[in-house]
Amino acid sequence: MKFLRLFYLLPVWSVLVACGEIHESLSEKTPVDYVNPYVGNISHLLVPTFPTIQLPNSMLRVYPGRADYTSELLQGLPIAVTHHRERSAFSLSPCQDGPLRPVVSYTYDNEHISPYAYDVEIASTQSEVPMQVSYALSHQSAIYQIGFDPSHPVYVTISSRDGALRAGNGFICGHQKLSDNTNIYLYVEVQESPVESGIVEDGHINAGKDQSEGQHVCAAWRFADGTPSVSLRYGISFISEEQAERNMRRELNGFDAAALAREGRRIWNEALGRIAVEGGTEDEKTVFYTSLYRTFERPICISEDGHYFSAFDGEVHSDEGTPFYTDDWIWDTYRAAHPLRLLINQKNEEDIIASYLRMAQQMPALWMPTFPEITGDSRRMNSNHAVATVADAVAKGLRVDTATAYEACRRGMEEKTLAPWSGEPAGWIDAFYREKGYVPALRPGEQETDPHVHPFEKRQPVAVTLGTSYDHWCLSQIAKALGKREEAAHYLQCSHNYRNLFHAETGFFHPKDKEGKWIEPFDYRFSGGMGAREYYGENNGWIYRWDVPHHVADLIRLMGGRERFVANLDQTFREPLGRSKYAFYAQLPDHTGNVGQFSMANEPSLHVPYLYNYAGQPWKTQKRIRQMLRTWFRNDLMGVPGDEDGGGMTAFVVFSSLGFYPVTPGLPVYNIGSPLFSRSSITLANGKVFEIEAQGVSDDNKYIQRAVLNGREWNKPWFNHDDLKEGGKLVLVMGSRPNKDWGAAADAMPPSADDEK
User: Fold this and answer.
1) In the prediction, which pLDDT does 87 show?
2) Which member of 49, 176, 347, 422 has the lowest number of beta carbons within 10 Å of its beta carbon?
């Protein structure tokens, strides 16, 4: 009952948001109404999704300060998330008790989150005096509105974990240190006039001290007794406090949170509305639009009034009219998130690739980034997959500085070590790879001799060899586009290096030592230690068995033909874990979302269900895709099977729900699966519309009986980018039994890499 009376203290808008009545129409849902930010907020094992409030690809993003949905307490109120799913800066803590603290722990209730707004009822664990919080945001600024119990004192504190704050009569500003050369800056302005302001010391406001620097510094305002509500607005910047204030004033004319929420709602509907779906269930639409929303979490645009701070050289630059983007874990996103963005927002994708090139030029060596973040390139994971985003963009006709991109990709692959999680120059392992065509594995008990190898992440020799083979193919495609025939031929040859680790007797990719001998004995499920990193990477040998996305036709030949290839695929989905669940996941915590040894929860698996298309049995692709979508992606708190990675996995859901998927970025080809919806339309970046009509589709009717593409009878389980880029229509007639003739002919298989030796 305490919380109920607070509604009388607040403007009507927060109540309407909480009740859902800010919607333009209660009778007709718009795309953003289908977004459920809570999907996946409880993880199966590792990191959950977070209910992110953010405009598409915008610099300012927040989520509640808790570990996951099951957390009992909120730790303050959020100001800004600075690294996707990892780190927040500053904290806002309204309170009605003492002593004052930098971050207050709250119980909470009646929380409502949309992509553009947040409201929640909170109470300090110390006093349990209830408060009502409402929030809406723009690209680099936001508004908080806080309702208080007028019978208690009214305070608002703002803290910085490591930085400095300055308190004035109506503002608080400062910064928080993120790394050696990167700060985030804050400017907060309050509508009501505080009666006291200053730095918090010993639990009280020291009104005689207006600034402080160090760990967990805290500034505060006290408002007049009986103040029913406080409205504040703030801006953030990576350039300066002054720029944070300018960002706020540019975006916010006042303290009207209702208007800000309406604008955020419009922006999200415009972004999500580029793909429209009909049919399917309400839950399927929720999973679809929530997945599409996740693909806009990263990367983020950090241009501010035509300038941006770059952690790659520690300088502020003019963006020269091209927005600068960062915070993109490319190992996760190159597979599906970038190809999806390329379809619906080509200009955005072009700007992102241009940002990569600026990063490369700003770093000491012209190396393409691999894991660009706010604080620079963390060089996480393995391989150099930015080359795939460039190759895909070039193959699909985007505007790219191809010559500069080729040089940055080439140098990043040849001059930087292939050792995972390292940005050091190439060492002896790299020299070995250039000579022998594979990364050598250590024998059990053999000591590491390369100082660049991460002590936990290990060499990952099979994963790196396979990933680098694909990267070399991508590089060959860029070289070909530039007319560099010799280089293209050389890198095409390098793209077959996966063959050096194919064990013909077992049909798996198998680690070799530096003498060229197989590591024996060997278990493709469990050999390799934690996360199988001594040989693979996060996933085991059953997953990396299929990691040749550029040359599936050659993989079929290596395995002994189409029949053996399909049998091996089938067995992947049938092979038991081999241990108890707790023992399996204790060693392979990333390898969740299992169907047999297949893992739906990690990005190297995403293309695997589509591989049946290459071996004459596309009906099995259709069955598997529906199985995976139904089993692992649901409208509930555990509805994501693993680390979602800001679009890395959910872009797979978007594509697969529509009915097609880009198995090989860099090759302008899409594999056909099994759509969920009776009709889908994609408004392409050029304004043209590509439609997918699935006649008779249902849970049972998941199999394609016949197809028509742009008015032509179509008997192939794939189509070209050229078939959709000017708009068009794919009609699929669906049935409950497989048509084993459709798309099964030997000449119907999707293209692979050039079959040159």
Assistant:
1) 78
2) 347
Mean pLDDT of 707-727: 98
What does the pLDDT read at residue 754?
62
Secondary structure letter of residue 443 according to DSSP: P
Which residues on adjacent β-strands are paired with residue 231? 145
Render pLDDT for 406-423 as a digit per residue (tens, 0 to 9): 999 999 999 999 999 999
- CA–CA dist 200, 129 (Å, integer): 21
The Cα 103–Cα 114 span in angstroms is: 24
Between CA 262 and CA 603 the distance in angstroms is 35
User: Which residues neighbour 59 within 8 Å (Cβ) at sequence distance 6 or greater?
Assistant: 139, 140, 236, 238, 300, 301, 302, 304
Which CATH number is 4-22+48-270's, of 3.40.190.10, 2.60.40.3140, 2.60.40.10, 2.70.98.10?
Answer: 2.70.98.10
Beta-bridge mates of residue 113: 118
Average pLDDT, integer, range 544-560 = 98
**Residue in the structure block whose two tokens are 């309204």:** 94
Report the alpha-carbon distance of residue 443 to residue 406 in Å, rounded.
36
For the segment 197-240, what is each residue's pLDDT rounded down to a tens digit? 999 999 999 999 999 999 999 999 999 999 999 999 999 999 99
Would you state the structure tokens that stand for residue 55, as one six-digit string? 């405009």
Distance (Å, rounded) from C-alpha 237 to C-alpha 665?
A: 34
CA-based nearest residue to 319, from 301, 299, 342:
301
pLDDT band at 85 (very low <50, low <70, confident <90, very high): confident
What pLDDT, on the 0 to 100 scale, is given for residue 753?
83
What does the mean pLDDT of the chain come to?
A: 95
Angle at 245 between CA 244 and CA 251, to 5 degrees: 90
Specify whether the CB–CB gap between 453 and 422 falls below 8 A.
Answer: yes
Single-letter amino acid, residue 354: A
Q: Stretch 698-702: mean pLDDT, rounded? A: 98
386 has a pLDDT exceeding 90: yes
Q: What pLDDT, on the 0 to 100 scale, is given for residue 590? A: 96
**Chain centroid, CA 369 distance in Å:** 16
Helix 461-481, helix 402-415: angle, nearest 10: 150
Rounded distance, CA 608 to CA 593, Å? Answer: 14
Rg of the chain, C-alpha, whole Å: 27
Pick the CATH number of 275-748 from 1.10.287, 3.10.450, 1.50.10, 3.40.50: 1.50.10
| Chain-centre distance for alpha carbon 344 | 17
pLDDT of residue 559: 98
Q: What are the boundaries of each domain within the chain?
A: 4-22+48-270, 275-748
